[in-house]
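Exercise 7. Given the components listed, write out the predicted structure of the assembled complex. Treat all entries as one system.
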Amino acid sequence: MKIRLNIGAISEPLQSEQFKTGDWGTEWSFVDREKCTACRVCEQFCPDGCIEVKEIEGKEVAVVDHNYCKGCGVCASVCRYGAIKMELKELFKVDVC
Amino acid sequence: MRFFGRGHGACPGCGLAIAVRNILEALEGKCFVVNPTGCLEIISSQYGRNAWGVPYIHPLFDNAAAVACGISEALKVLGREDEGEVVVLAGDGATADIGLTLHGMFDRNHDVIYICLDNEAYQNTGHQQSALTPLGEATTTTPAGKLMLGKIGRKKDMVAIALAHGSPYVATSSAVLPADIRRKVKKAAKIEGAKYIQIHCPCVTGWGIDGKDVVKVGNLAIETALYPIVEFENGKLLTVRKVKERKPVEEYLKIQRRFRHLFTSPEGRKVIEEIQKIADENALRYGIDLKK
Amino acid sequence: MRKVVRGFYSVAYAVKLCKPNIICAYPITPQTEIVENLALMYANGELENCKYITAESEFAAASILVGASAAGARTFTATCSQGLILMSEVLFNAAGMRLPIVIVNTNRALSAPLSIWNDLQDSMALRDAGIIQVYVENNQEAHDMVPQAYKIAEDKRVRLPFMICMDGYKLTHAYEPVDLLDQNVVDSFLPPYSPEVYLTTKKPVAFGCYAPPHIYMEFRVAMQRAMERAKEIMEKVFADWAEVSGRNWGGHLEVVYPDSKNFVIAMGSIVGLLRKVVEELRNEGISVGLVKLRTFRPFPVQELRKSLENAEKIIVIDRSVSFGYEGNLSIELKSALYGMSPEVISFILGLGGRDVPKDFLKELVKNAILGKEKSGFKGFKEFEEVIP
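Answer.
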């Protein structure tokens, strides 16, 4: 089977989106929809572009896409309303003896 | 529409990824990105994993400015100027050390926005010093030892160099000021000629900080006056980000691994005093202290 | 329009007829008058849809062309010697990105010691860059080669930089009668440049992506295949050119007296001198022919093997050297003829503009054929190297 090879290593746009980075970190950010004011500050700060304000049940709130969230915590650190919390992924919640 | 795709390879909490997203959004994706070798290139432009939603070229480490000039002039000749701005997104090493072609771009005043994403060392290859590494920073090529306490000498003053070339728009900003980045990039886009914007980009791995502290550290650089946020149009100082109560540089230095060694010896203390002097000079030079 | 012009003008005029969009260069002797002439044409508004840029170095000039070419522009530069070496990082890169930049290299020696005079050391150093290299014998051939260079480089089956090598001073500054092409001849031969892929916001692709070990090698194989395809396409273009212009320069080689027992092989302007040498030696009853090698990359291995299959002795005239080995063309030729068994004698001469008089060259070739001259440097003063 022959592979397709673009001349001069030219690449098509936005191919990185196929690669999910959500499993990189030990934590994910979670938004408290009650506290969120949809101010969009976290949206501007997220290095991975994985928080977006969306309308959910008639209210605009920030939504984290855990397919890509690397758990850096930048969003939580800029939220003026304390609406974003970092939580350890289930996988890492283990007892250490 | 996304201009910088998710799934890119930046470290969690990467400052320059914040800056890049805001730059591209400010230009609404109407731009051509020229990106020399460095962190940004490595995290975004692997063949088959391209993160860019805008036309992009990675030429070499040392020629981004000239390549941008070529694109800018070609677009004019081909009658395609309206397609967008030509933007260089270069690291500090590619700008202040090896970026040989920057002065020609300024000299001929090509219509290019040159943006230096300043994370203060060659971070992608594991934290080696560049001309924009600040005094006292321990890097792998300026390690802290018995005789040497990190980088000797100050950051190269690229703002002054750009101004000396007569650049029509010269500004600094920080990855922790997305609104400021957007405003300045939009402004630069409206001005014809070779513009220079230098953006301070905290680096989690190189600086030895936690993702959660990226914004805090970035802000402390501003609040200590170690990274003045300024803006010049046609050589005239237009805006300066003022600081109400300037913080001592220790507050900035002590929370970063790269400066940790300065706190463990009397010689290190002297370096901290020197760094404080730089901050004081910056404050005086740009009038950073808000008058009480 | 037949005119007596100097080599640099014959090139500049041909470049103008090819309608490049971006010309960018940094002046270097003896290329300077090529770009000066183009700058003058630009200043007088004679270049349509074209911007002439004076760069701050050859490194920048080549870099500007990388940007312009990637954005879809037809590009031109000229350089030589230190300038070509300074460009080299960019040119390797341009070849890998498959950008059809056309370069005229006015062959000049390399420093140190500094020399502004002619030999082929500069372009030989770029042998492995992935750039097509053609060497011309005279100013008419240089003139004719420019439109052909664009046609070959821009062919979508090729897309590689193209370097026309012409001897500095010996050609660039020589007055020769040249049939200057008509615009309509060039227009009928060379279509406007319209690449299938280029930098545009309408279809935002990424150029210059890096390739990890799992995919890097494929791109280098692709370059080799493009070179191999170029070899065939060039022959077609050369033939088409003969039809369009009425001047047939031959294929990758020109072989004079193909039935000879002995052959001299060379590239560039020295071929003109060798034509005379060969005639004189034949008048003396010596069976000697001449191979003019036009295309150095891609290297025409099969053509050389075929042309030289009955050769008993081959004399290679080199004007550059791979230090620690021998003359560059000699190395290439021996490799191409592997398995065949002619005697190969290689002379390295004319370095840094050292004069090569006809009678000197004739004696060398004659003595080599008679078995009285060994390979090596010729035409230098013997010395003892001392530390002052």
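Discussion: The beta strands of chain A are 27-31, 51-56, 59-64, 84-88. Helices of chain A lie at 41-45, 74-78.
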